[in-house]
Amino acid sequence: MSEDQKKVLEQQLWNIANELRGKMNADEFRDYILGFIFYKYLAEKMEIHANTILKPDGIKYKEIKENTEQGQVYIEAIKEDALGKLGYFLKPSELFSEVAKRGNGNNDTESNFILEDLQRILNNIQLSTMGTESEEDFDNLFEDMDLNSTKLGKTTDARNKLIAKVLSHLDKIDFKLDVQTHGRASQRDVLGDAYEYLIGQFASGAGKKAGEFYTPQQVSMVLAKLVTTGKTKLKSVYDPTCGSGSLLLRVAKEVKKVNNFYGQELNRTTYNLARMNMILHDVHYRKFDIKQEDTLEHPQHIELQFEAIVANPPFSAHWSANPLFTSDDRFSQYGKLAPKTKADYAFVQHMIYHLAENGTMAIVLPHGVLFRGAAEGHIRKYLIEDRNYLDAVIGLPSNIFYGTSIPTCILVFKKCRENPDDILFIDASRHFEKVKTQNHLRTEDINKIIDVYRNRTEEDKYSYLAKLNEIAENDYNLNIPRYVDTFEEEKPIDIDAVAKELKNIDKEMAETDKALIALCKKLNIDTPF
Fold first, then answer.
1. Closest to 369 (Cα-Cα) out of 403, 388, 395
2. Is residue 395 located within the same domain as residue 458?
3. Fewer CB under 10 Å: which end of the chain, C or N?
């Protein structure tokens, strides 16, 4: 699929999303439209899978008569196969296209009642997985899609009409999941990118809430390229604050293969979105493990280590800092816990605990982590002086994240560093493009960060390799201007030239005043002086 065709698909989906815009805020209609797209994806994938099985019999899945004995034989055989390979099951009558047809009625002004049908089908998708390997991955996946919500319409008929209209529009778009590609991105990749586009569009209108579920793709790309440096395959990638899962999926685009994806997310709605995002990007249910819980208080993957770790945690979040954590293996060796009102280093410690010996982790944090003292200063010193895990500090432009304008930085950590004698500092804060009210990293800005990081090159006013003793002399303060001098000397001012210019301006003003007085006299009106 060409870039133009991809953009057409994105615009089509966004236009359909706007059918719901007038009814509710961005947060709410996001959950409905992404849920409907996901249902359509599951249905198309189910139909393709079933038709492949039925090909030797010369029939199509939609042609099966469900109420006949023969039909039941076919359905049971297909169900068993689908649950093992796809992880879920839909009957022919439950396919998206069939529901859309029923909702569309007999003409453009009349629609059949489908709300109860649709709610039952969404429930059935989950129920079909009960007792199977994929049960956890589909558990309550559609719980945020309340089809009886008055936000969709004050009356049942109004809600039915709106949903039927949205389904009808979506049904006209062929996702082409069965199209064979040769050496190009698959149609599922294209659909996945379109899904990511919608998530980004919703984030741009969600204000402060956007940070809960979305990392701007430009930042995701930097993090992904950092942790995949020198790698073509990854055994595992982990995001302890995974949001919609976009950052995990971005890492997969930088290598040929990722064996397993792991993530944890506190917000229930965002957790559902992450699981949908994984499945829609064709990540098999056996290859991802997304959990819903508070990462710091109740870690869900405590026994595992990961080859790549990425995160954009909530900046300076509150956490319990319970004294019991001093005996937790994630924090015990440091001697101090991160403060209750700033969990930034708690996330760093958690991630380092899970980092494999051959792994790389990259985390986005506010600049305060570079220089704040007390417990944070103690932890920072331990990471550098005792462990020597910090590999690079990268300063990003301000106003690059949705919902906050503060400048941020990326810290890169490795347990086995190839360059153990120095730490690379990069100041990329002045390299960006302003788009409306938001700052954006351009492709050239991203490439420059990654090239400098991978080659560990020093560039005047951009990057610097600081020796460990230099950092010790600075009392482990990592504030970037201490290492990267970005001072621009102002051009000297020619006082004589300025004085001459002022005299010329005075002369021009006097001549203008003289001309104005003459004009006023000619018109027989008072002068303004």
1. 395
2. yes
3. C
* Same domain flag for 40 and 144: yes
| Distance in angstroms (rounded) separating the CA atoms of residues 441 and 443 | 7
Q: How far apart are CA 441 and CA 400, in angstroms?
A: 8
User: Is residue 487 assigned to a domain?
Assistant: no
pLDDT digits (tens, 9 = 90+) for 299-341: 999 999 999 999 999 999 999 999 999 999 999 999 999 999 9
CA distance 473 to 484: 16
User: Quick check: is 30 in a domain?
Assistant: yes
Q: How far apart are CA 165 and CA 109, in angstroms?
A: 10
| Longest Cα–Cα distance in the chain | 108
Residues 41 and 142 in one domain: yes
In this structure, how many other beta carbons lie within 10 angstroms of the beta carbon of residue 418? 9
Question: What does the pLDDT look like over 454-503, one tens digit per residue?
Answer: 999 999 999 999 999 999 999 999 999 999 987 666 667 778 888 888 88
Which candidate, 223, 226, 220, 284, places its Cα nearest to that of 258? 284
Are 323 and 307 contained in the same domain?
Answer: yes
Question: pLDDT, tens digit, for every residue of 374-416?
Answer: 999 999 999 999 999 999 999 999 989 877 788 899 999 999 9
Phi, psi of 194 (to 5 degrees): -65, -40
Q: Does residue 488 lie within any of the structural domains?
A: no
Sign of CA dihedral 454, 455, 456, 458: negative
CA-to-CA separations, 403 to 193, 210, 212, 267, 502, in angstroms, rounded: 23, 6, 10, 17, 46
Query: Looking at 266-402, which runs of residues are DSSP E strands?
Result: 288-292, 306-311, 355-366, 390-395
Lookup result for tokens 């010790």: 472
Q: Model confidence over 226-285: pLDDT tens digits?
A: 999 999 999 999 999 999 999 999 999 999 999 999 999 999 999 999 999 999 999 999
Helices (H), 281-364: 344-354
Please give the residue range of the domain that contains residue 524: 494-529
Q: How far is CA 174 from CA 37, 178, 191, 300, in A?
A: 12, 10, 10, 38
Shared domain for 340 and 465, answered yes or no, is yes
How many folded domains does the chain comprise? 3
Cβ-proximal residues to 522 (8 Å cutoff; 6+ apart), any chain? none
Count of CB atoms situated within 10 Å of the CB of 80: 11
pLDDT of 21? 67
Q: Give the CATH number, domain containing residue 367.
A: 3.40.50.150
Do the beta carbons of residue 245 and residue 289 sit within 8 Å?
A: no
Q: Residue 439, CB half-sphere, CA atoms under 13 Å: how many? A: 19
User: DSSP letter string over 68-84?
Assistant: SHHHHHHHHHHHHHHHH
